[in-house]
Amino acid sequence: MSRATTIGLTRSDLLRDGGYIDGRWVAATSTMPVTNPADGSLVGKVANLGAEAATQAVDAAAAALPGWRARTGKERAQVLRCWHDLMHAHADDLARLMTAEQGKPLAEARGEVTYAAAFLEWFAEEAKRVRGEVLSPHLADKRLAVLRQPVGVVAAVTPWNFPLAMITRKVGPALAAGCTVVLKPSELTPLSALALAALSEEAGVPAGVFNVVVGDAPPIGAVLTGDPRVAKFTFTGSTAVGKALAAACTGTVKRVSLELGGNAPFLVFDDADLDAAVEGAIASKFRNTGQTCVCANRLLVQSGIYDRFARALAERVGRMVVGAGLEGVTDQGPLIDERAVAKARAHVEDAVARGGHVLTGGGALDRAGFFFAPTVVADVPPDALLCQEETFGPVAGLVRFETEAEALRLANDTRAGLAAYFFTRDADRSVRVAEALEYGMVGQNTGLISTEVAPFGGIKESGMGREGSHLGMDDYLQYKLVCAHVRAAD
């Protein structure tokens, strides 16, 4: 039985094993295994490409740039829209492939396909709306115009936790603006990226406009950060890696955008709607088994509602179904690898050692795969690892606070600044807290904030630049002043 059949793919040709460079599928003498984190089974093997292939991909992107840049925004939009339609047409295959290599529940994977395709649709529309300016001249014989043009070749490095959406959120605006792209997906989830490349070819994306280099990160990354033909570098991942990659880009003064780690506070005030706050915490903390950069990392709860919230959340979390996404309905899938399990375990043990109490869950499950029980820990002190580090797992730590001022002090006491959440029914507090939280995105009475129509990004050490919305085009366009001398009539 083929691996595509085991996964349940309708189109077996979406399971690819080579890189995609200049419109061709590229093999390699060595390969990397891709395994299912739910049971360790082999999903597939992909080419282990390196610096030479990365350079070939930059060659292809640079050669394709003039032709793609010369197309009208409407022409580029038509290609992106076709790519969007193909994603929807093959949504089930894409979702099953994603669940097999990443582990998220199948329902979540289907939701990500829809979310990922939405960026192609959105930026297809934005491709037709790139505007320049005509300025009032400073002299009678001068005319001033400001053009907005594509920056050029873009290198994109994407993570494993959202293996489709993090690609289209970058590639969509890049292609809409007239740029060409070299993509390096995570070694843990390359199959989703390669399936997306297969659909891009069907959609009419020209050879060299979108290239995918799979393989070992360091040699590929060295080419993408060091090649002067790459004008823009965009990365989503950990803060430490993002800093190193940004530093490597300074030698050629590339434009850089970074979406890095978070440490999101989730504030629940005494006047909050308890049921809404619990459901918001579930949506934010446990989506993708807690493996999201914007998930609630610290749940700060005011003392008057603390005990009721803790009981309600623990009861709700305790009913979650944990299992492999391709084997039936499940609320929580596995973590990505053993290191993720070890980190979740260490955070729980540290919280307990500092006086915390496990209300439900608390440890790894005794079964194949990297499963960790959905966990709620009460009475966590602010200096615990659960509060100081990004857990990236299904562990909710509850911290008690007394006043609004204390809550804001605790919430802002971090170098991360990606996302924050708060629940209150007080209109004045809603304004004060939203303005005081030092984060790039704030959810008010909701645990879900991501959408293609709104800007996504953080402040402080959580990155720079914005993805999504009309602002998502900005990092892929540059300004050019044209100052023209106009002779007076004879």
From TrEMBL:
Residues 25-482 form the Aldehyde dehydrogenase domain. SUPFAM superfamilies: ALDH-like. The active site is at 259. Keywords: Oxidoreductase. PROSITE patterns: ALDEHYDE_DEHYDR_CYS, ALDEHYDE_DEHYDR_GLU. InterPro entries: Ald_DH/histidinol_DH (IPR016161), Ald_DH_C (IPR016163), Ald_DH_CS_CYS (IPR016160), Ald_DH_CS_GLU (IPR029510), Ald_DH_N (IPR016162), Aldehyde_DH_dom (IPR015590), Aldehyde_DH_Superfamily (IPR050740), Succ_semiAld_DH (IPR010102). It comes from Sphingobium ummariense RL-3. This is Aldehyde dehydrogenase domain-containing protein. One of its GO terms (biological process) is gamma-aminobutyric acid catabolic process.
